[in-house]
Design goal:
This protein is an alpha/beta fold and 102 residues long. It has two domains: 2-63, no CATH class; 65-102, no CATH class. It has helices at residues 7-20, 39-42, 45-53, 66-70, 75-80, and strands at 2-3, 27-31, 57-61. The protein has a three-stranded parallel sheet. The two termini are 30 Å apart.
Amino acid sequence: MPVNHEADSLDQVQRVVEAMASHARFVIIRNQVHAETFALYDQSQVRVRLLKKLEAKEIAMPRMEEWLTNAGLCFASWVACPSRPGPHPLRCAKPALVTDGL
């Protein structure tokens, strides 16, 4: 379940925990795409419950470097590219339109 720095994220986590506490194991993903701090979540009772009582795990998902997200590097484009080079997902100037299975 992803969590970020906003209050509504904390509210969503609380609701899911209340509904699923006895039916699930939890992995909290600290999504750093918008902020690297999680003050509300870090000080919350729901975090204490998740970590201490429900034995949840936390994973930090760091923000990707801008050059990765804005450079047009996209695995889907690479797969659809008729002239894709080698085994690595590199930029393709003219990705083909994939219509198989649609």
